[in-house]
Amino acid sequence: MTHDSGGASGIEVRGVTRRFGDFVALDDVDLDVRPGGLTALLGPSGGGKSTLLRIIAGLDYPDAGTVRIAGRDATFLPPQRRSVGFVFQHYAAFKHLTTARNVAFGLEIRRRPRDEVRARVAELLRLVHLEQFADRLPSQLSGGQRQRMALARALAVQPEVLLLDEPFGALDAQVRKELRDWLRRLHDEVHVTTLFVTHDQEEALEVADEIVVINQGRIEQVGSPGELYDRPANPFVMAFLGPTTVLGGELVRPHDVEVLTDARAGAHEARVTKLLRIGHEVRAETRAADGSTPWVQLNRVQVDELGLVEGGTVWLRALVPSPVAGVAAPAPVPA
Amino acid sequence: MTDTLARPAAPAPQPAPPARVRRARRRTGPVAWVLRVVALLYVLGLVALPVASVVQHTFADGLAPVLEVLTSEDFLAAARLTAQVAGIAVVLNTVFGVGMGILLVRYRFPGRRLLSAVIDLPVSISPVVVGVALILVYGTTGWFGPALQDAGVRVIFSVPGMVMATVLVSLPLVLREIVPTLEEAGIEQEQAAQSLGANAWQRFWRVTLPTIRWAVAYGVVLSLARSLGEFGAVRVVSGSVAGESQTLTLFVNDSYQEFGPDAQRAAFAAAFVLMAVAVVLIVVIAALRPREETS
Predict the structure, then answer these.
(1) Whole-model pTM?
(2) Among B122, B153, B143, B144, which Cα is nearest to B234's?
(3) To pair with B181 at 20 to 30 A between CA atoms, which of A36, A220, B86, B215?
(4) Contact yes or no for A318/A258 (Cβ under 8 A)
């Protein structure tokens, strides 16, 4: 992976290591973020993704390794000279300034002419749909509005890269979904290289055009959402990106399991122990002859057609071969 | 999409809470009544009655004698000195309060907890001890005494000593306001400012200071009140020479201990002035409080 990512406005991370006492937060990490892309850093809490983002922003420093932003060595640059926009999970709004003054902050620091500042702020507030809130204080805005203000503030100084640290983590589910769509469309408009941290696989799959899975201080896999979902490099990535279950010793997706009412080649016999209805989905939990407990994701129509009942016997067969064949990882309990 | 972004969905209508719950919460029980009476008696006995009696004694013979005291040489000198000492102390308190507050909250260094404890020390030990300690260090026979004397600087029995004593006892009041506010505000606003291009000075001036401004104002007013009223430490280091090194509190004390109705009247008049200033400061503090909470 040595394409043009160190060029125009990409980020190039080489051999970055960061320790906190005995804990290794990042272990010799290499990463290329391509210019103009919308990349997600996905991983479990404590996996090192936020630390990596903060090191790129200059809010933390690596014990070893280098960071290049837009082709420039930024490893030892202070944050204010990196041309990086940073959006915090908890907004970090300047509480004493109005929405417009918050957005204008970076421009005022740069001593831009007053007319230019006013025009740019108006343009950005339009972009984030906050025109009518220009004179409000952050305390008078909702969480989603504050976060959009923070985004406009970061974009105002036209940074080379935009970094977002769990940007929607503090918002409720409804607003979070809206802002995801909105971020996607905003990125289509402004095309700034964007790297955002999330622990929510759905968010990463939905928003990003490239996902970097990071766990225990190491990068597990980099690829497009489709690639990662269909061809995970290892059981961890597979389990982290979506539901999994173990069928006949293989890790498979529970929606890629065929339910049969009679014995056929390659099918495993199992007894239905529970039918759990979750909205449009029905989750069939079973117990196989080998003692394992595979579960299958179905819908109501399928359950009716198959005539499934709790206590009945079925035969289960994987529709697609396991992408991580031969690795019998314990499947995580479905949330 | 735009409208849903701008406006959160209307909340579902809430069912009214059962009336029984509301009544149970509102009722004032016998315990609350007892507490109210105790609080009232306490305030009456310890605050209202003494204050009223000072006012009564001050104006017992009408306004003329009071005015006479307030225009006397010694009173004016004491008032000037108090203003001078308190004024310098407040400026020092503001500068050191903000500086040390930021140092204590934003930086991790060896001895930080010790420093934090030492700063509170003058509040917990008697001001008289603070005064004596200052004499032991800066007096003519103290550690730095001879050196200061050679340099021609007089600290003890002079304004610098009185300012030092006042700052020592009032600085913690400023810090105690600033430190929690800084801790609560966290560091993210400053980091955001930094990523937006602000250098250290710009971050302090545009983000940190506005964040703590009401805490600073509140702490400074408190420390001003404390500075004006400081007695013990100043008494020890000043020598209390009338017209020369006598602050208003010392003026009250010394006048009261003299014989004769004139001296007594002077004590009451000066006490009344101190009290009036304190009341004004309390009003200012009360006005600052709610603003601080909403900021």
Answers:
(1) 0.79
(2) B122
(3) B86
(4) yes
